[in-house]
Write a structure and sequence with these properties.
261 residues
């Protein structure tokens, strides 16, 4: 306990002055806030099992994220850490940290509360189906409870192989997240249904008209259907097998180029 008390004090003294002016403050009229403008990227190399080293790192190793829409790590960083501070000045205490899964394979969250110990959340990622994730949703998510006027430090680890690594994160109220998830799933189902229908139309037109163009059209729309399942994370959420991520990431990249011509 003494160790954690000293560690947290060091975090507050070293990290807070650096990030204080960019602390994300939650207000009553806000229910969906983008994290990336408030995030700092760790420029060193720390493994997932060496979290204490990250906490004790010098503040100069954290640089402001340069993208307003995502925490961008590029192609050369398959795994990375970022940190951001959140202060809750709203009456809402139940929040959800949402991480879009299209540019991330695995996520791990640590949080440090004021005058309290370190909280480690379960690892989540494409290796898990719906029922195995901390929050049963297509995007990776963590349910967080923050009291009013409480400040919490978030340390987010993400990893990505065979593609561009970027964490598209946002902080939502529980109600907003549930509404988003329902609307997204309905829209995804509608779009996938229309794409499948278009594929069948192309196939039946070929049977009646006997022009190869309709076969190509059917193959093209079918490819788009599978890319939708992979890129939205639906394929990962319902299927699990060895080499799943390697195959899916490679498939998605290949068919993006295929559809782009």
């Amino acid at each position: 306990r003494c160790f954690y008390a000293c560690l947290i004090s060091a975090i507050c003294l070293c990290s807070c002055p650096l990030h204080a002016q960019h602390t994300l403050v939650l207000k009553n009229n806000e229910n969906d806030i983008v994290i990336s403008p408030h995030a700092y990227v760790y420029t060193g190399q720390v493994s997932l099992t060496d979290f204490d080293t990250l906490l004790q790192s010098d503040s100069v190793k954290f640089v402001r994220n340069n993208s307003p829409e995502e925490i961008n790590y590029g192609m050369d960083q398959p795994n990375a850490w970022c940190v951001f501070l959140i202060r809750n000045e709203s009456d809402q205490q139940d929040w959800v940290l949402k991480i879009q899964q299209s540019r991330v394979d695995t996520a791990q969250l640590y949080i440090v509360r004021e005058n309290k110990g370190i909280e480690r959340f379960p690892m989540t990622g494409h290796f898990q189906t719906f029922s195995e994730r901390p929050v049963h949703s297509l995007p990776f998510a963590y349910a967080i409870s923050i009291k009013k006027n409480e400040t919490v430090a978030f340390y987010l680890y993400t990893a990505r192989q065979y593609g561009r690594h970027a964490a598209i994160t946002s902080f939502l109220t529980k109600g907003k997240f549930e509404s988003y998830e329902y609307g997204f799933n309905v829209a995804l189902g509608f779009v996938c249904g229309m794409v499948v229908l278009a594929s069948f139309v192309g196939f039946f037109l070929f049977l009646f008209v006997h022009q190869r163009l309709y076969v190509y059209y059917s193959i093209y729309t079918t490819s788009f259907f599978f890319v939708l399942l992979a890129d939205t994370g639906f394929a990962h959420a319902i299927l699990s097998f060895p080499h799943d991520q390697t195959v899916t990431n490679g498939f998605t990249i290949a068919f993006y180029y295929w559809m782009g011509g």
